[in-house]
Amino acid sequence: MKPHWELAFKSAWELHSLIVKKDVSPVEIIKDALKRLEELNPTLNAFLTVTPEIAIEEAKKAETTDAEANQEPSSDSEAVDADFEEVKEEAKEEDKQEEAKEEGKS
Prior knowledge:
Blueprint: H1 12-20, H2 26-44, H3 52-68, H4 76-105
Helix pairs in contact: 2-3
């Protein structure tokens, strides 16, 4: 298997773990994906426009953000709880917006 295919079949959790352990960087993941795309897209024709510069720039931003907030939850349940709280807040905001629309129709 070609080296740039090694990461292709890893799950998002596995990639996250590798990034946190600094075994791989977001930039490396994107560069590998771009190499695979370069190989496959002429046959698959899956993408009309490819913007590697933007993808790499965003990966560099993710690297910086990850380095600043490199605090992994101490357990999976903490991560789920944090995500759940975020979803609840978003739902509350959507409910408020919906109520405001309904009041405007009355």
